[in-house]
Amino acid sequence: MDRDAFISRISTAVMTSDLPPAPSVPEWIPAMESDDLLALFRSRAIDVDAVVHGPVSRHGVDRAVTGIAAGHQSQTFMSWDDLPGGDVVAALTEAGLDRIDADLPDEGRKEHQLGYSRVDLGVTGADAGFAESGTVVLSHGEGRQRMTSLIPEVHIALLETSLIEESLAWWAHRHPDAVSSTTNLVMVTGPSRTGDIELHLNLGVHGPRHVHVVLVK
Question: Distance between CA 152 and CA 147 in Å, rounded?
Fold first, then answer.
């Protein structure tokens, strides 16, 4: 079979085929072995090379974030607008860091985007944490730009301890509209990982090299 005929058959099949119906959400999901979800989350997050801080009070969030920034010698940052705790943006600015705007202007977009190459730190909230894997969930929208957790070398996620769930299955079961209610959903499990052809694992090639999770109680 020649190439054109092969592609034509695939195109026809794609255009005429029907997707199977989505399976219904089960009424019962196996329980986790551990009752201490906070301890399990911490353990699993550390296993995937994330650094876990706290839990800290809401009044201690600013100090935790500025301390991490100082440890990495960060000079610039991006941040979500809505964050748990105090005024993180003001705290970082007072510490001498410059905030880079993640919103693209109508004019000079290319020049503005070139400035993203010098963003050191990104600070986000988190919609949930999965104890099973040490994962944090980020939903995006206005004031919660995707680039904040993807471009900087250091990503700080502020996770309220009350939002820690057993696993992805449990979270999806309890929040069935979580995916459809956001423009984008990202699940972060430790720093970015890339394996090369020689099977060497590299961190930070396609995302942050350092991931910090600040637990907020």
Answer: 8
Q: Is the pLDDT of residue 132 over 80?
A: yes
pLDDT > 90? residue 67: yes
Write the CB contacts of 167 (distance below 8 Å, at least 6 apart in sequence): 32, 130, 131, 132, 133
d(CA 192, CA 204): 5
C-alpha distance from residue 68 to each of 53, 63, 120 (Å): 10, 9, 12
Stretch (H or E) spanning 168: helix 168-174
Distance CA 40, CA 196 (A): 31
For the chain, the domains span: 34-216
Nearest alpha-carbon partner for 123 in 141, 147, 96? 147
Q: Which of 101, 135, 145, 137 is nearest to 119 (CA)?
A: 101
Say which CATH topology domain 34-216 has: Rossmann fold (3.40.50)
Predicted confidence (pLDDT) at residue 50 exceeds the cutoff of 70? yes
